[in-house]
Amino acid sequence: MNQHKFKHIFSIRLNFLFGAIIFIFFILLIKIFYLQVIKFENYSALAKNNSLKVIPIAPIRGQILDRNGEILAENKLIYTLEINPKNENNLKTIKQKLSDIVEITKYDIKKYNKILSESYYSSTLPIKINLTNIQVAKFIANQYKYPEIYLKQKFARFYPKGKSGAHFIGYLNRINKKDMKELKKLNRLESYRGLDHIGKTGIEYFYENRLHGKPGYKTIEVDVNNQVIRTVSTIHPQHGKDIILNINYKIQKVAEKAFGKYKGAMVALNPNNGEVLSYVSQPSFDSNLFINGIDETNWRKLNDSVHKPLINRVVSGIYPPGSTLKPFVALAALENNIRRPPFSIIDKGFYNMPNQSKTFKDWKKGGHGEVDLIKAIAVSCDTFFYGLGVELGIPKLNNVLKRFGFGKKTNIDMPNEKKGLIASAEWKKRNYNKKWYQGETAITAIGQGYTQTTPIQLALATAKLINPNKNLRPHLLKESSTSNYMQDRIDNSINTNDLDLVKKGMSLVTKEGGTAAFIGKTSSYNMSAKTGTAQVFGLKKGEVYDESKLPDKLKDHALFIAFAPSEDPKLVIAIVVENGGHGGSTAGPIAKKVFDAYLNEHN
């Protein structure tokens, strides 16, 4: 092939290639024009439908444990079937569709509708909770049949102890309108995205901020069919912190068992730092009933019960202190140099007011004979304290009661604490527009009348008999430092010698002749105590109290405060047994079982 012919063939090929490139480029220009101009609106709309969605990631709630690591509240992985409330859902159709997999009951539908009326955050709501593994497997195998139903796994709260400790542990329930209003007020709405439960009572409520954590977020891109295209970014949640309590669950079980079927409350404190080691409110309830909304039957059973199991009696139960007030009344007398030993009276079983206007009877017919302040505490002599109260006067008496914490909240880390009541002439005038009578001072001195207290107040006041100059605050949360709960010293101005006289009287309560002598006979340690009986109703003139003829609801309350060992107290206990009769015979044995268990473990 000559050179000229070769150049000609090369030129043809080059022109063909160049032409092909121009043709392809021209086709691309047409295509671009078609997409960018002719089909612009169509493809622009499709592109806009590829949107970004922000999905909250719920944190795992912190656990609640006792001081030894016993789990009191934990999280259990469960599976739920959920539907989008924004869709037009026919629940009857959904029920029929799922009939081969799981039964959707009338209660399930009722609960769904209740959740729907109160829910705010969830994009889907449960129609069936806590599926079995078999039900989950069946649903997954047939999932294509149920595009409107979502299978979700989540952590649900679980209380392994059931009724035990329910009042201090508390419970979760779904977020409602009231919660929303409060969260908005506190500017904390964002911290609950992806969460549909919140603490309602007890520790679950009080330490909600620590327990619930902070939600994370996942940003995803989805197409027009809501199919995920890609994950754009992920911010991981901050899980809630575990709460460790001062509660000793071994002692808690002993206390609850000792209470048996009685109603009432008991609290046990470390008198040196205010740690709450046991916290009993009876009757109790199962916290698990409330997690996803309690059913109507169980709610009526609890709410309408005459025994009021939902009341947290330790902090919200209000009771006359009865004779458990006498050690503090005695301190007020000693501080004002009234009836200081060796002063004594001859108790014949009654006390006449100075103007002979009224006669008050002692609990013991015939009286206690010769009685000084120490014996008056040991045998709980009403006659002695009637006269003491009248001589002392209500202002001086109340001054000491206030310094021991009566009439004000202890600020324990528990919601709904009541402050009790210290009555005075000013209080009565303000509330009843009536004057205060000397006889009211007399009965106040034995813990009757208007005076009211809570079991936690009684426990704290008893602890202050041991450490009067420490600003103790009862607390359930266990911290590495107790500085949040206790200042080192305060000036409570209680004379040490006066305290020793009162403590001596309390130590004799469990000795021969004392109102709880039988307890001391079977103890390997010394216990100092004070028994108490509080009237539920007033007797008419000339009427005699006969417990055997009364219905349970009208029987006296039994009270008991104590600390042990007397020489170096490790534990303080305060008990109120509603309609239990006498403090020594009913409340005392409960306290002894708790002291036995704690001191044996402590040793």
Helix content: 25-40%
Radius of gyration computed on alpha carbons: 36 Å
Overall pLDDT confidence: 87
Strand proportion, as a percent range, falls in 15-25%
Task: Flag low-confidence runs.
Answer: 537-549
Oligomeric state of the chains?
A: single chain
Number of domains: 3
CATH architecture of the largest domain: 3-Layer(aba) Sandwich
- Under CATH, the homologous superfamily of the largest domain reads DD-peptidase/beta-lactamase superfamily
Q: How many strands, what sense, and barrel or not for the largest sheet?
A: 5 strands, mixed
How does this model look, in words?
The chain has 603 residues and is of the alpha+beta class. It has 3 domains: 3-48; 54-244, Penicillin-binding protein 2a (Domain 2) (Alpha-Beta Complex), CATH 3.90.1310.10; 249-602, Beta-lactamase (3-Layer(aba) Sandwich), CATH 3.40.710. Strands 2, 3, 4, 5 and 10 form a 5-stranded mixed sheet that branches. The chain has a 5-stranded antiparallel sheet with strand order 12-11-19-18-17, with helices on both faces. A hairpin with a 6-residue loop joins strand 14 and strand 15 (359-361). Helix 13 (326-335) runs antiparallel to helix 20 (496-507). 38% of the residues are buried. Residues 537-549 have low confidence and may be disordered.
